[in-house]
Amino acid sequence: MTELVIKDLHVSVEDKEILKGLNLTIRSGERHALMGPNGNGKSTLLAAIMGNPKYTVTQGSIKLDGQDVLAMEVDERSKAGLFLGMQYPSEISGVTNSDFLRSCINARQEKPISLFKFIKEMDKAIQQLEMKPDLAHRFLNDGFSGGEKKRNEIVQMMMLKPSIAMLDEIDSGLDVDALKIVSEAINQCQKETDMGLLVVSHYARFYEYLHPTHAHVLVDGQIVVSGDQELIDKIDKEGYEWLETEYHVSA
Ligand code: ADP
Ligand code: MG
Ligand code: MG
Asked: What is the ipTM of this complex?
């Protein structure tokens, strides 16, 4: 059982406070949907958890099974089992997808993964995501379409088997078929690993596939309301305006 516990988190970007006391706990096997109007700090939260240096934590704590995540270097956080599938994955020319992944995996374990096992797992992930078989040998995200980049983030997740995976608008830019393929891969990966999931998306359709166990709305740097599927449905129907009257927050 893994537990990521975030308490009273305050995060600033370029001296502007974006997160203003955020609390959230994610455990193995849970699926958390994180919603909220654009520009309110969803990506900032994920970046701060992963240790992106642009985001300064000024107050609060992030603990993974009691360990102080904020005291860890960026690479230590991913070795500890945290994973972020990004909204805009970066392209790295000169490093192939398979070399990149193999070094990520090997950095996390004492004995390097056998080439045989690695190739078998990577082929399986590429097949499951219905990607082109030459994907392994192409430079990381170089010349990938938007949809291919997103699928590739899921290939990485499947190979790295994180204990807590965070996905930032991974569904944006996916067509209906791709959305289904990606969702099934996420579900399958969670079934196999029992990872905890934190999924940022605006779309009820994506959540229909993922069946979140928890849902949260982030407004102005705080989670202002939490619930379950009912909350997702309400936002899908009514947007965020009702928050203003019910919770006195302006989105
Ligand atoms: P969301 O993901 O909810 O749309 P973000 O976390 O991306 O929101 O952004 C929250 C606020 O922080 C916005 O005002 C945004 O402009 C600002 N912000 C986020 N990242 C950066 C950055 N790297 N540099 C400057 N401002 C940023
Ligand atoms: Mg945004
Ligand atoms: Mg964002």
From this structure: 0.95
